[in-house]
Design goal:
The structure is a single chain. The protein is elongated, with a radius of gyration of 52 Å. Helix 2 crosses helix 3. The chain starts with a helix and ends in a 22-residue tail after the last helix. Strands 1-4-3-2 form a 4-stranded mixed β-sheet. It folds into 3 domains: about 120 residues, no CATH class; about 55 residues; about 60 residues, no CATH class. The protein has 13 helices and 6 strands. By secondary structure, the chain is α+β, with helices and mostly antiparallel strands.
């Protein structure tokens, strides 16, 4: 009792209503029972929940307190009943929950899930089964349960439930593998296609260049610019032509020069001018 009184209202509400806030969606049905093992703690819980939970309250605002159910059960147990806006989910807060109280709650099950039982009304035998929970003995209840069990192949239902979808697991795995393979292949295809486009463009570009060169080579009979240059420049004398290499001599007169520098350069037998000349000819170099 001391522990719950030391908590704030928010802490208490988060403790007891946390799961209720995340119950099933509109397509499902759920009943949640929140109870304590200490009636004093349970009574304090009910007091706090009643004051802070439900429509127009801070917590569980999508739930509505069912006052008629609280009054109906007042002589059997101290409880609060909340049903959400979809009428698919019910939360029951009670200060304690003994077996006879649990059976009493089972008897009015259709009240907690009105939408479900409106669409699927109870049969006469199902109604009798719920009513039998209020009997002082379990004879009628056990008899009805046995009848239901005899009509239902429990073993087959368990097998169906546990193996549902198992046979399709391998197909699903293979489907995922194939999707990944297709994705990788498509990416490789796009990359290869891009490379092929680039290669095709390069080939086409080379063909255009080749065609231009061949046209120039076969169709041009006039002197080239290079020929005209050598013809016009009287100071150039071609020595040899080998492939793309031309060896020629440039000659002329040095009207203005530094005699000392020229002499030093000419006498440098390791320099560029003397590398291919006969060493004996070096003596003949003179500057007049």
């Amino acid at each position: 009792m001391g522990d719950i009184e030391s908590l704030t209202t928010r802490n208490v509400m988060n403790l007891f209503t946390h799961d209720a806030e995340s119950l099933a969606s509109d397509s499902e049905y759920d009943i949640m029972i929140v109870h304590t093992s200490d009636k004093q703690v349970g009574a304090k819980m009910l007091e706090i929940v009643r004051a802070n939970a439900g429509k127009n309250k801070k917590f569980m605002s999508n739930y509505t307190l069912q006052e008629d159910l609280r009054i109906f059960y007042a002589r059997k147990l101290n409880a609060l009943f909340y049903i959400d806006n979809t009428k698919h989910n019910t939360v029951i807060f009670t200060d304690s929950l003994e077996l006879k109280q649990f059976h009493a709650l089972q008897m009015t099950l259709p009240k907690y899930l009105p939408t479900l039982f409106k669409e699927n009304p109870l049969t006469e035998r199902e109604t009798a089964l719920l009513k039998s929970l209020g009997n002082k003995t379990a004879v009628e209840y056990e008899q009805l349960i046995s009848e239901f069990a005899s009509e239902l192949d429990i073993r087959s239902e368990i097998i169906r439930t546990k193996l549902a979808g198992f046979e399709t697991v391998f197909e699903k795995i293979r489907i995922d593998e194939l999707k990944n393979e297709i994705k990788c292949s498509e990416e490789n295809y796009e990359n290869d296609l891009s490379d092929l486009r680039k290669l095709s463009d390069r080939i086409q570009e080379r063909k255009y260049t080749l065609a231009g060169l061949e046209c120039s080579l076969n169709g041009n009979t006039d002197d080239s610019e290079l020929m005209e240059y050598f013809m016009c420049n009287k100071n150039l004398t071609i020595i040899t032509v080998d492939g793309t290499s031309i060896e020629f001599v440039v000659h002329g007169y040095a009207d203005i020069y530094d005699a000392e520098v020229a002499e030093k350069y000419i006498q440098n037998h390791n320099g560029f001018m003397a590398t291919s000349a006969n060493p004996d000819s070096h003596r003949q170099f003179r500057i007049n």
